[in-house]
Amino acid sequence: MSKRRIAPTERIRGQIDELFADPELKLAAVLEDVARLSVRLVIQAALEAEVTEFLGRERYGREPDSRPGHRNGYSPLTIRTTAGPVQLERPKLRGSLGRFSSRLLGRQVTKTNALEALVISGWVRGLSDRDIEAALAEALGPQATVSRSTVSRICETIRVEFQAWRQRDLSDLEIDYLFVDASHFKMHQGARSEPVLVAYGITTEGQAVLLHMSGASAESTDACVEFLRSMVARGLHPPLLSICDGSAGLCAALDQVFPQSRRQRCLVHKARNVLSKVSSHDQETVKKDFWNLFDLPDEIEPGDAAQARALGLAEDFRKTWDGEYPAATACLLDEIDLLVAHLAFPRAHWVRIRHTNLIERTFGESRRRVKVMGRLPGERSCLSLVWAVLERASAGWRGITYTPADVRMLQRLRHPLQLPEPPQEIDDETQEEAIA
Description:
- By secondary structure, this protein is an alpha/beta fold.
- The chain has helices at residues 8-21, 27-55, 113-124, 129-140, 148-167, 221-233, 248-257, 267-275, 283-292, 304-321, 326-333, 336-339, 350-353, 357-371, 379-394, 404-414, 428-435, and strands at 70-81, 84-94, 175-185, 194-203, 208-215, 241-244, 262-265.
- It has three domains: 3-165, no CATH class; 170-263 and 380-427, Nucleotidyltransferase, domain 5; 267-354.
- The chain is elongated, with a radius of gyration of 26 Å.
């Protein structure tokens, strides 16, 4: 299909996906560009929705009761906003009985804060129809705002996507690794920061996939159990390994909902806990010694040998630092078995499955966006914002490469846990290796 036949909104979405797919770009830089493209995307979508309302049919649609006329390409248009110029494509019509004029832009509107208000209101306030209309009317006057049906069409599309995502069937996904984390946001008047729980997984094919997101009043065991069971109710099978921070509620919930699965404590969170008990003078040395426990030489085989080596190094760590920092060594040795759980898995997976940093970094972008506001006006707004960031970011998350040897190792690990073995498509070369 030629570029000319592709809708402008689809081209903008493609640019956003390309940014996330570029491994050379840092996440923070990508999201800055995505924010600018999002402004362009929402305004362009509003223009397209106005044309759909005017004609009474979608692009390429054929409705018997629609107005005469058809779309006839686009003309370039530049809108100046306080964030810089935004390049748009104004739809052109041919054969219509009346003249089409955008209520959003008017006839000669080329500079207005209302365009940003449209995005900010939808982005921050949970895509409320009334909020978007009020923001536009406040900036342009009641005659220049978009119609209720146009606003509703834009908002309803995004709301439907979000709700469909939260209710989708998960039974087709076979997860080896399940990552669960939470970040706290202020979303209710007069209340302290409250957690937003997020789960993503690595499938048996090595693909990273965002699974679920939900708000809670507290990171309690009951709230976390309900969060996990909602995924099970939609068909999620038990993972081989779950990874989480040291939250008591989340750890207890994982053990309760997935008792057969192994569990790994996030090493990044544990490192922070240990270093918080060490003076600034020694923190760099202690930090290096901490990570040396898990960055084992290549000749150490995954499994019992690797775990035994790490436990021995942990004892050496205790002997070195227990005299000066007994609280730090006690923190390290607390549930040490959960810190070395990942060493039983394929070596190539170690660096990825020993922490929840991927979610943490993306949560950081969400917090940065809402920092200037102090509090989001409601739970729906908060979840909309976090989902928008995570859903787009997850499109660029890299998975894990599985070799035939990795597949066999994971199958051996799955067997004693009595977890069902996922179906594997093994090519001829892999089958020959398995027989040998």
